[in-house]
Specification:
The chain is an alpha/beta fold and 190 residues long. It has two domains: 1-52; 54-185, 3-Layer(aba) Sandwich (Rossmann fold). 48% of the residues lie in helices and 11% in strands. It has nine helices and six strands, in the order H-H-E-H-E-H-H-E-H-H-E-H-E-H-E. It has helices at residues 7-18, 29-42, 57-66, 76-80, 84-89, 101-110, 114-122, 137-150, 167-177, and strands at 51-53, 71-73, 94-95, 130-133, 156-159, 182-185. The protein has a six-stranded mixed sheet, with helices on both faces. Strand 5 (156-159), helix 9 and strand 6 form a beta-alpha-beta unit.
């Protein structure tokens, strides 16, 4: 069986396959890289027309990262996908508390999801950070509540929860919020 075995060659070929699906979207070079990475990670060129970026979000996220911002995630799968060595080189760290027994107990007591309880426990630490939600719409709804009711202001939110219950609504609420820069996708895909 003959197939590509070199990592960079695989990545380059993937980007060649993705490129035609970005034509006509009016993306600049940096936006093209973000779209390409998102599509590559999902393995689905159908993401191209549903990705949404608020104005200036990439620059604001890069500035926050270079300034040592931490990243707070809703699930370990998202935290695992972060290049923690590169993040640490800027002074930041990745955090996820969804598996913490204290968070599980708090969630049970409050009758909410563990992801919600984790975001609630991060609280004011979310200000100036990057929030990355890749699974739980409830976590994104909780961050939006914290923005509205407690005045937290993440540097940006990557809000891409998946699913049929609350995912599309939470992402629409993020896009409509207008107080925090964001990256999201429309609909149920995450």
């Amino acid at each position: 069986m003959d197939f590509i075995k070199q990592p960079m060659e695989i990545e380059n070929r993937s980007m060649e396959i993705i490129a035609p699906h970005l034509v006509g979207l009016g993306l600049d070079e940096v936006e093209t890289k973000v779209y390409s990475r998102m599509i590559h990670a999902a393995g689905d060129v159908g993401y191209a027309p549903i990705i949404r970026l608020s104005d200036g979000v990439i620059e604001k996220a890069m500035e926050a990262l270079r300034g040592g911002a931490d990243i707070y995630t809703d699930v370990e799968m998202v935290r695992t996908g972060i290049n923690k060595r590169k993040l640490a080189s800027f002074g930041g760290a990745a955090h996820c508390l969804v598996s913490d027994p204290k968070i599980a107990a708090e969630a049970k007591k409050a009758g909410i999801t563990r992801s919600m309880a984790a975001m609630r426990s991060f609280g004011k630490a979310l200000t100036g950070s990057i929030v990355a939600i890749g699974n739980a719409p409830t976590a994104l709804f909780e961050v939006l509540r914290l923005i509205e009711e407690e005045g937290i202001r993440p540097a940006c939110i990557v809000g891409i929860p998946v699913g049929f219950v609350g995912a599309a609504d939470s992402k629409a609420a993020l896009a409509a919020n207008g107080k925090v820069p964001f990256i999201t996708v429309e609909g149920t895909k995450g």
